[in-house]
Amino acid sequence: MSKTINFGIDLGTTNSLIAKFNKGSVEVYKNPVGFKETLPSVVAFRNDRILVGEKGRVYLEKDPKSTVGQFKRKMGTTESYKIKSLDQSKTPIDLSAFVLKELKTFIHTGETPEAVVITIPASFDMVQSNATKEAGHQAGFKQVVLLQEPIAASLAYANKTTGNELNNSQWIVYDLGGGTFDVALVRIAEGELKVIDHEGDNFLGGADFDALIVERIVVPAIEKKGQFSDILNQLKSGSGRLNSKWYALLASAEEAKKELSTKSATEIDVEVEDDAGEVISALISVTRSDFEAVIKEAVDTTAEMLRTILTRNSLQPSDLKFVLMVGGSTYIPMVRNRIKELLGIPVNTDIDPTNAIVIGAAYYAGNKPLELSEASATVAPASPLKLKVSYN
Ligand code: ADP
Ligand code: MG
Fold it and tell me: What is the three-class DSSP state of 45?
């Protein structure tokens, strides 16, 4: 009996997920606490307790100096995060390993897998890839196979459609998540899915949209109601009087943003103390078009990157089958419409933007043999040399 890896993990900047391939289909596991498929990639350190996920996210507001999120952006760098409550630093690898360990608790079958497929952005170089592998080993996996996210998304789509629709074709995977934007040109060549080219921005995603709502809509509305000097700095600076309010406002902005994907207007309820010590309350209304105006520039930047890929590969929009949308921020109607409008390529929203990558990872894992020999169980450590690797 040949054994396969079966387990797949989407180790995301904002959210992580785990799934298993079983007899031809894929199950995305749910968090036994809260029954959601997504685990926020946030780790909080509370004295001797480590809180990962939703519980960690709560501490972003309460204790931002002992809570870390978005650490995938720093994978493969030598940067680490100072954790105030521990008086220690943690590396992006350590933090990712905590997320991976937490995902293992979602497996309700009692299995403890020793092998896993973990997805990485197409833009990850050798150092970032090795860092991801190391996080997997630190979390107790002996065999870690990496898979590029646009390939995973394409596999999820391919397994959803019947027939050979994708044969001899090429398409774009447009992934707009919480922290990063990645766009990739994918093609089937000799029966193999390949990323031909990619572009992206490590600092463009849904979290930036939340910040734009606070900065451009919420803050100007509060400023009108009370006495504030330099309110943005008081909110955003770690030592600012209103720093923990900043995280609360971001959370309210995110809620409002999600509502605006299906509704034309919503409200943000704010209570904040002004410089004179007076509590200012405001119910700020936000319409879908207000929101669209603040994100337009960012969305147009993503379209530009897509165009860059087309030009670099001498392709016309008509050469592409579609733009496959993934990542939570592609729920935003304007994102879908703008890409269609600016590029004239059909937008494909057939896969679930939240779990497509983990589903593709599990399908891949269902075909990948287990190799848990002594040799594969020992891993080359991430290179101590600081090399920048680039390839076509
Ligand atoms: P990542 O790949 O960074 O881990 P995800 O693909 O899970 O992230 O996307 C998370 C982002 O998607 C967050 O910024 C979240 O606010 C946003 N998001 C989720 N659902 C919606 C929605 N319905 N409308 C708009 N944005 C959404
Ligand atoms: Mg993602």
Answer: strand
Instruction: Determine phi and psi for 150, rounding to 5 degrees.
Output: -65, -30
**In this structure, are strands 143-148 and 115-120 parallel, antiparallel, or unpaired?**
parallel
> Using a 6 Å cutoff on CB, does residue 260 contact ligand 1?
no
Q: Note the ligand closest to the C-alpha atom of 12.
A: 1
- Whole-model pTM: value is 0.92
> Which residues, at least 6 apart from 138, have a Cβ–Cβ distance to it below 8 Å?
93, 94, 97, 100
For residue 261, which atom of ligand 1 is closest to its CA?
24
For the segment 6-63, what is each residue's pLDDT rounded down to a tens digit?
999 999 999 999 999 999 999 999 999 899 999 999 999 998 899 999 999 999 888 8
Tell me the C-alpha to C-alpha distance, in Å, between residue 75 and each of 55, 87, 96, 228, 321. Answer: 23, 22, 9, 38, 33
Determine the distance separating the centroid of ligand 2 and the alpha carbon of 270, expressed in angstroms.
30
Counting Cα atoms < 13 Å in the Cβ hemisphere of 359 gives: 20
Residue to mutate (ligand 1; options 262, 329, 331; most atoms within 8 A of CB): 329
